[in-house]
Amino acid sequence: MPKSNAPYAKAKNTSDYNVPDVPLASKSTRIPEATENIKSEHNRTGVGPELQGGIPRYHYPKLSTKEDEIVMRKYYPAEMSNERVEMYKSGQLPKPFDQLEQALSSTSTARSEIPVRNAVVHWFRGDLRVSDNTALHMAYEKTKSKGVSLISLFLVSPEDYEAHIKSPARVDFILRTLEVLREDLDNLNIPLWVEVVEDRKNMGKKVMQLMEKWNASHIFGNMEYEVDELRRDARIVNMALQKNIDFTVVHDSVIAPPGALLTKGTGKPFMVFTPWFKAWVTYLHENPNYLEVFPPPTPNPKETRIYYRDLFDCPIPPCPEGKRLNPKEVEYVRSTWPPGEKEALARLQKFLNEKVMAYKDQRDFPSGNGTSVLSVHFAAGTLSSRTAVNMARELLGNGTLNTGNKGIACWISEVGWREFYRNILVDFPWVCMTKPFKVQYSNIPWQYNDAHFEAWCTGRTGYPIVDAAMRQLASMKYMHNRTRMIVASFLAKDLCLDWRKGERFFMEHLIDGDFASNNGGWGWSSSSGCDPQPYFKIFNPLLQSEKFDPEGDYIRKWVPELKHVKGKAIHAPFDRLDRKEWAKIEALGYPKPIVKHVEAKGRAMEMYKKGLGREKP
């Protein structure tokens, strides 16, 4: 099991209470206390925290059916059957990754014969950086060989942001990153054209229109491994060829390409992290070229500013409706999470200089500063896995990825978890379609208790460690990885709620929301994913609190009602305070525990056994 950042690709934390360092160019950022939690004006379901006695409250519409809580029927059909999953397994249904690979392979010869015209385009997606960018480098090499201009493109798709549950904070971070990226590219005489495509089905059509307008012959993009994106790119490859345009899609967000690592003997995809990671390390030791980083492109010809002058004046659009932070959130989120490639590299270097050596020992304590908090940059693509692993490997000094200082080797393995979960998307695509990795877990009779779910969302469960974590999420749009595991286990195994509701809620609020890592983490915690915690192993939130927040500093930070509680009572005030002291806490609005863990554990065991058909006759 991944202990720190793995399930959620949380790569770091750089200051007290899991709050990242202020921008390295400024030290004026102020971190608000939990009492300053603010209202999220919009998001996909209308959920947003509202101040009520200093505690975030959430409002969300009553959903008409249980299915509507899981599947966004505006964009997708009903949840697929287990039988259809078996068709993917048997090969009766083609996997989207294979469809894209087939499209690229079958058109390879024809695309190679397309002559270079006036320009070559790089299509930015989840790779918002200039350095170590595979597709950007390939586009640059193509222009360099012919002396033509390089144009960069980014398409804003409000429908995709809704369908793929990108949080307002994440969308805001992406658009702010584009501002920085535009400046970086402008210094290289490379224009960045940003356009809003209102209908997601018209994405390919819009790309073709722009290519023809610019008289561009080749367009490059880095591969995205979610189902919708793979299918979109497969269609555009063929669409482009019909217009005598070469659309090339390449691997970039993973170091070892999917399909390169298979189990010995059976030649099947890995489903367990530890043997996969060993194979990954061996593969990269034997093929060090995969760790080579690409330099940024050199400047465009001077004529580019004349010929494509209008492209240099392209504005970055505002956040789409439904994805906007309110003014107070804007101020806090933007000061807490500065964007851009330079910021990402500076944070990485600071972490490696000051904290990575102790990472293995310090990563699990949410009140400390033992992690790197780079997950937002990995998610936006302002930092590549190759760069991160290379910089960490240099500290090891022996050219390996898994020996030497335990802190460094451990952190590299956490980056590996992020890659592992992307491989899962490729080989087991139904996890992108609201199905669990372990399909039999579709039969678990989850409860759909609105009151319990609201208590979990708002940090009012009566379990301080859970409540602190959920309030951190409401305020920071981020949560420490250890507490992500705690709250996920609590939702699935103490409250017996469908884990997919929690998975969706995280994506609606996290600034570092990454589908593969988020899905993998929730699958681990609910025991329905690959390489999961067994269903009969259930986190005890009290023991987790005492072990990983022993002094209660994290709880006091985010649960102000408990800030004056002393000693071990901070972990379970209802049980450990006398009646008089508890009455004071209750008067501040803090609730009693909504379930008793011992009883909840028994219910969860029976629920899992029933769903998996393991009840005794």
Automatic annotation (TrEMBL):
Stretches the record annotates as Disordered: 1-31
Cofactor detail note: Binds 1 FAD per subunit.
Cofactor(s) in the UniProt record: (6R)-5,10-methylene-5,6,7,8-tetrahydrofolate; FAD
Keywords from the named record: Chromophore, FAD, Flavoprotein, Lyase
Domain of life assignment: Eukaryota
SUPFAM superfamilies: Cryptochrome/photolyase FAD-binding domain (SSF48173), Cryptochrome/photolyase, N-terminal domain (SSF52425)
A GO MF label: deoxyribodipyrimidine photo-lyase activity
Sites annotated Electron transfer via tryptophanyl radical: W446, W499, W522
Pfam families associated with the record: DNA_photolyase, FAD_binding_7
GO BP: circadian regulation of gene expression; entrainment of circadian clock by photoperiod; nucleobase-containing compound metabolic process; response to stress
Name this polypeptide is given: Photolyase
Natural source organism: Terfezia boudieri ATCC MYA-4762
